[in-house]
Amino acid sequence: MDEPVLGIDLGTTNSEAAFVDDSYARIIGGDREGILPSCVGINSDGELVVGPEARNQAAAWPERTVVSVKRRMGSDKLCDLGGEAYSPSEISSVILKELKRRAENEIGSTINHAVITVPAYFTDAQRQATKEAGDIAGLNVVRIINEPTAAALAYKETDEQGTKHILVYDLGGGTFDVSIVKIEEQVVEVLSSTGDNMLGGDDFDERIVRFLTSHIRKEYKIDVSEDAGVAARLKNAAERAKIELSGEYYTRIEEPYITEDIHLTVELSRDDFEKMVMKDLEKTMVAVTNALNDAKLTSKDIDRILLVGGSTRIPVISTMLKEKLGIKPSLEIDPDLCVALGAGIQAGREMGKEDSGVLIDITPYTFGTSAVKDLGWDVIPDVFVPLIEKNTKLPASRTEPFRTMFDQQEQVQIDVFQGENANALDNILIGSYEFDLSQTAAGSIITLKYDLDLNGILKLEAVEKDTGRKLNAVIDNVFSETSESRLQRSRKKMRALGGFGAASDLPEDTEAGDQNASGISGIPQEIADTIELAREKLDSAHQDDKDEIINLTEDIQTALQAGDFEKAEKLSAELEDILFYID
Ligand code: AMP
To answer: How far is the CA of 242 from the centre of ligand 1 (A)?
Structure first.
């Protein structure tokens, strides 16, 4: 098709449109600004409004506003809007028309065709009603595709060849779906889909609202649960707190004058929030098992987990999925935009652009810190605790709590590591800071927050929770600095093995004239000979031995630099043992 085709995610809470140009699908209006609340209303001047304006008036004028129309699609339930009755398709067409208008402004040409996504469980009647909404909006719906299929398409370009099974876990504001999708060559097929269309972020907000009303009851001896005005404010505060807890470990909910004389101020931790929603989340894990059973697969068959919907930003969901399926969910694409981008890719295909994908900005490395793990009967030092995981979409922000080990502890050392190894010391140290504490009791909480932006600027903030005492630091260029660190490690290895890198590869501080084969001056000849032998035998060594040889040689060099000849000799003997078996 020569004419432009728009990809549309017509969602329950929000809708977005995506378009392919330069072979990449992008969100019309920009990633965040392009999100259009799926709300339609009549304002106080009697004008039709859509998006943020309609959403903002929903609490004050429910009779003049329609929200979540998607739930009525395909039914004969009419929507009342300012005294007039409209079909769900008519209301949805207002949202589609707005997306079409925005896209036409941005692209600079008329758009008459669209690909629209629907949940996999939508019946024929619901799909037909969606098509009809497109027709009313002036869009010829060239294809209706399933939301999990669209999500898989958005990720497909980053995937390898061969048959893949993808689990799409979609938790939005009011609905939950889990689907198993099979990708084979160009064909994407939904093998199973199940869920609960009455479970989502709104329920989590409700749990926090209940916690707040019971706090007010206990603290101020009044019951605010019947007051609609207070309820609306508490609901907004609850949602803000919930969202904050996806990045922070603690949040303070503050609502001045929640009643005439009550200033609500209460702290909520991520742990407490997780306890509130755990039953709901466990239900979603049962649905994951059911979806696997329906598809006649086991967790071992799943190659990827995709997260869709705003509520999947709750960190414990990723943890639970990883525990259940043994793989970490993919984090590359914004869970709010994944379906729209997939619809955009399908729209691109309808336009004959087969190879379009999604342009994604992700961190290529994991950034974390080191901590001591207390098992009760033993402690493990130098455990790597990732904060921002490899392949997370940028910008990214994450907070983790840590506890002090001793009473009156004066200081903690905060090391910033880049790498993927469970032992922090096997990763690359990119920053180290000393944080003075106010000598509180053992077990006091220190929260550590990393903010990583697109330019590779890593901001770190440590906060002593009890006192609010802070440490702030910024590490620039973590991506390029990291590759430089890698390079340095390689150079070091080459230097240790002597003669392996060209002289120009060696750092300027290397005094080539004063070296023996080990690359270090003034070392015992026996050790130098062993290193020389290692250099000669390295090529013919088995890969495992190769790694061992390089590591030992590096360790010998470190020992020699530290003047620890005894250790160097011991390591050299180990190295000799390995070399003995290599021809
Ligand atoms: P959706 O229906 O996919 O647009 O998802 C909307 C739901 O996601 C709402 O309940 C939001 O409160 C929730 N949500 C958005 N961002 C976050 C976040 N960072 N953490 C937790 N929930 C979120």
So the answer is: 9
The long-range contacts involving 524-528, CB below 8 angstroms and separated by at least 24 positions, are: 524/565, 524/568, 524/569, 526/569, 526/572, 527/556, 527/560, 527/568, 527/569, 527/572
Give the predicted TM-score (pTM) of the model.
0.76
pLDDT exceeds 80 at position 490: no
97 with 179, same domain?
A: yes
User: Residue 392 sits in which domain range?
Assistant: 367-474
Ordered DSSP codes for 505-561: GS-TT--GGG--TTSSTT--HHHHHHHHHHHHHGGGS-HHHHHHHHHHHHHHHHHHH
Greater model confidence, 373 or 515 = 373
Identify the domain boundary among 276, 311, 343: 276
- Tell me how far the alpha carbon of residue 304 lies from the centroid of ligand 1, in angstroms: 22
Same domain (yes/no): 255, 284: no
- Distance (Å) from CA 453 to ligand 1 centroid: 21
Residues 55 and 165 in one domain: yes
Domain count, the chain: 4
Residues 285 and 408 in one domain: no
Q: Let me know if 170 is a catalytic residue.
A: yes
Q: What CATH number is attached to the domain comprising 250?
A: 3.90.640.10
| Higher per-residue pLDDT: 490 or 543 | 543
- Catalytic (active site) residue 332: no
* Ligand 1 site, CB within 6 A: 11-14, 172-173, 200-202, 239, 242-243, 246, 309-311, 313-314, 336
Summarised one tens digit per residue, pLDDT across range 289-310 is: 999 999 999 999 999 999 999 9
Kindly name the residue from 90, 98, 132, 170 that is annotated as catalytic. 170
Evaluate whether residue 484 is within a structural domain: no
